[in-house]
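User: Hey, quick favor. My workstation is busy. Could you predict this chain's structure for me?
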Amino acid sequence: MDSKRKNRRGFTLVEILVVVLIIVILMGLLFPAINAARENARAAQCINNQQELGKALIQYDMTKNRLPGVLSFVNPSDPTKSPRINWVISIFGELGYMDLWQTYSGGATTTPVKVGQLICPSNSMAEPVGGLSYAVNLGVYLPPDANNNPDYSMRLFRNRAAWDATTSTYEPDQTITSLKTSTRTVMLSERLQASLWTYTSTTSFTPGVYYTDLDPLAFQWPINGTTNPKTGDTVKITDGPISINPVPTGPGLSSNHRGMIIVTFFDGHTEKIPDTTACWNDPDNRLYGTP
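Assistant: No problem, here it is.
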């Protein structure tokens, strides 16, 4: 009887602690792998989102022979009465959301709704309903000339709400076929500072005024150079605009993906680029910011 009792003795405290320690170590090794797998899945979904948006932008260009305006008037012939829309609303038809196009292009409502392709999964917890995780490439900032006339020659996506009262024309359109190279020119990128996709600017239309409040919809490369004149540091994609007078519109690129930003080029392909990539004519990536 005594020998059977001895054989049934339980685990010692030391043995239990050893088992617990092994489990803790295994969990510590496993959790980073699980988190990395989840982030890879979110990055893959972000790539899919951008590819869909890229195809819609390319289709729009093929159909209308111009890129959509960052801001546009639905009826350019009568801008004082025409609703304003942005590049997102402009491509709702190409994305398969004709109901949203009809609702928002008519100016009937500005109540935001969630559109899955417009939100990066890594940002989803912070994005409000109607959130926008992506911005189009406005181009390279050039300051106005001595007569305070803006220079739009380096812009890619134009501001079609910019009206020149002198010539009675809008900012001239840009097409994909006119680019230096569609394979190395960024069309679309992540940007944490993007606003709601319903944003159409609060500025009232005034003939002769060039609208520049495009920050929530587009990003812009800093003015020509390779260092920030304020700090002496190499300007990175995640840096905001260089402080000059007047201040360039649109901050730089940014994302919640660790160490990288996902961008889409004008030929429709996407890439993961390091968030330390220089903003212009980088010898390794050649991310052109100019037409």
